[in-house]
Structure formats: C-alpha cells, structure tokens
Amino acid sequence: MKAPWLYISLRICGAIACSILLLGCKQGASEAAGIPPQKMADALHAVVEADRIVYTRNVVNRLTIDEKVIKASEHWQDDQALPLPAQMFRMGAEMVTEKNVGFTYSLLSLWPVNKQNKAKTKLEQEGLKFVADHPEKNFYGEEKLGNTMYYTAVYPDKAVAPACIECHNNHKDTPRKDFKLGDVMGGVVIRIPVR
Predict the structure, then answer these.
(1) Phi/psi class of residue 72: alpha, beta or left (left: φ > 0; alpha: ψ in -120 to 50)?
(2) pLDDT tens digits, 82-120
(3) What is the CA radius of gyration of the chain?
(4) What is the pLDDT of residues 145-161, one digit of tens each?
(5) What pLDDT sits at residue 79?
(6) What is the model's pLDDT at position 14?
(7) Burial code of 21-41, b = ≥16 C-beta within 10 A, e = fewer?
(8) What stretch of H or E contains 158?
(9) Distance of alpha carbon 172 from its chain centroid, rounded?
C-alpha cells in the first residue's frame, strides 16, 4: 500500500518546511523579522493543503470509494475505520496548537456538519463568505483577539474527491446537500500573531 508512506513522508516534509518558515520569522511574523505575514501564511497553507489533498484522494477516496477496502467514519476508533479528512486535519491542527509554535490553523465552514467548525469571529465569517463567492482567491485581514493582533488568512477548501461530497451531502447533520466536485465547502483559516 503506497499511500501510508507517502502520507508520512508528506507530513515530515511539512514539519520541516514549517520549522524553516518559523525560524525565518523569529519574533512573530513581521517583515522586520524576515518573512511578511502573507508569505508565511501562503507557505503554511501550501503544506497544509497538500497534506489534506493527499490524505483525501490517496487514502480516503481510494480505500473507501475506489477499492471499497475500509470505510471512513466520524466514529473511526469505534468503527475500526479511517478518520474523515476533516478529523485528520483537526488532529494535526491540535498538535500544532499544543506545540505553541507561533501560528494556528483550522478548517471552518459556512455549512459545517460539526457545529464546532462554524465561524466564530466577524473576520472568519467575512473570509468564508469571500472564498465561497471567489473560489480562486484567498482572503487576508487582521483581527485583535484578546491582547494580540493576528494576521488571518482564509483559503478556499474545495471538494477534491467524490468522498468529500458523498460524506457532506449525505450526513444527517449537514445543512447543505448539493455540493459538487470542485465546490468550496469551507475555508482553511491560518492565524499568525503579528503584535
């Protein structure tokens, strides 16, 4: 089975790329420290997006839809199944948050199956609406949360495989049942503290 080693290799490459970026950013993400926030956010997104697409297409879609070897389930531990792509994404995001490396990322939607994944800030709502309306563009802004100013970037998260639309359109808690391949289903939100 090629997908697990490919997936692990991609995760290792992603970790190395993130470490290099963060070393270059030093104190937050200001231009004076080395890397402009947008460039850092775009680079982080490239790694996160590649990781997400590889897992979705080469593991979940291949094993559940194409080869029907195993199912993917939101109750993956109990069902002895694969974690859903959104769950795998969340697990990675939680690990990064625990490491306190200077940035966070999340997967949010205007139509979340899991209510935890809805927009919580005005900027998140604005960004999600923007990428839904402009699927080929990203959204950038700054917002103050607590005492910290963040550079926040929102990237369109599209249905990249049949498994995406099958799961979302058929889930009992879905607020939307008409997704098609290539549709924006939500957004990847990356936050970098800037001051």
Answers:
(1) beta
(2) 999 999 999 999 999 999 998 999 999 999 999 999 999
(3) 17
(4) 999 999 999 999 999 99
(5) 92
(6) 54
(7) bbeebeebbbeeeebebeebb
(8) strand 148-158
(9) 22
For 25, the token pair is 């950013």
111: tokens are 């139509």
For the chain, the residue count is: 195
- Residues in Cβ contact with 173 at an 8 Å cutoff, skipping those fewer than 6 apart: 113, 114
- Quote the CA–CA distance of 29 and 151 in Å, as a whole number: 9
* Beta bridge pairs of residue 63: none
Residue 86 near residue 162 (C-beta atoms within 8 A) = no
As given in the structure block, the two tokens for residue 27 are: 């104190």
Q: Which two tokens mark 34?
A: 């080395």
Tens-place pLDDT, residues 35-67: 999 999 999 999 999 999 999 999 999 999 999
